[in-house]
Amino acid sequence: MRGHFITFEGGEGSGKSTHAAALAERLQAQGIAVVRTREPGGSPGAEIIRHILLSGIAKPLGAEAEAFLFAAARDDHVRNTILPALEAGRWVICDRFIDSTRVYQGALGNVEAKLIRGLERITVGKAAQPELTFLLDVPATVGLARAQSRRGGAAADRFESESVEFHEKLRAAYRALAAAEPARIVVVDGRAPREVVAERIWTIVEERLHPASSLSIEAVAP
Ligand code: T5A
Known about the structure:
The protein has 8 helices and 5 strands, in the order βαβααβααβααβα. The chain is of the alpha/beta class. The site of P1-(5'-adenosyl)P5-(5'-thymidyl)pentaphosphate (T5A) has 27 residues, from helix 1, helix 4, helix 6 and helix 8.
């Protein structure tokens, strides 16, 4: 049986990694084989492109060029990590995916929607569409403060260093996406205490994907 594909989306510091890890752990504790992965990255080729993108050296090339780089990374990631895992019956939990490109490069970077959708068709097609996406929604100031405290003295990356206004627009663009695709994207208030957020996510996963009915023997760590 094919595995399920779940993605986590939201602004910087909204809790995506925290809750992707918590969900993976809970599924694994039930005996479900899980691959936890992330974008940009998640495969050897895509991790190289991640360094280029997050260092900011591609920023002067413009948002369109960055969209091509995210697409190149995604193509490698889908072919080498996501599809093989799903086909092997594993559940895939991915920290950021297509909605990040739609929002960061599309809505905020003004890259034409037609181009974004075209890249999505080539890299993701029908085979690697997420079935369920959690949008962790927090005000930009909350997310940025969390991200800053987590990285300590290290410098902000390419997108973290954008203005608060940029991050507020990002939040609005994400909420608009969720409103347009309510069957796939579930908005979760990321300001709530960790355990509350984790429980809400688990309830939705149970309701929609019925983990108890897809147990497998092997559990794969990220
Ligand atoms: N990007 C990515 C694009 O522009 N286009 C694309 O197509 C793609 C795929 C990736 C960057 O690339 C851009 C977007 C991004 O800017 P990244 O390094 O992967 O960058 O960074 P992010 O995805 O933004 O991840 P972060 O690590 O910044 O944030 P998370 O994962 O949302 O947050 P997390 O879980 O690490 O939590 C941050 C801190 O908050 C605490 C955690 O313990 C942690 O310390 N926390 C909470 N505190 C209180 N209450 C809660 N409920 C909490 N939940 C977590």
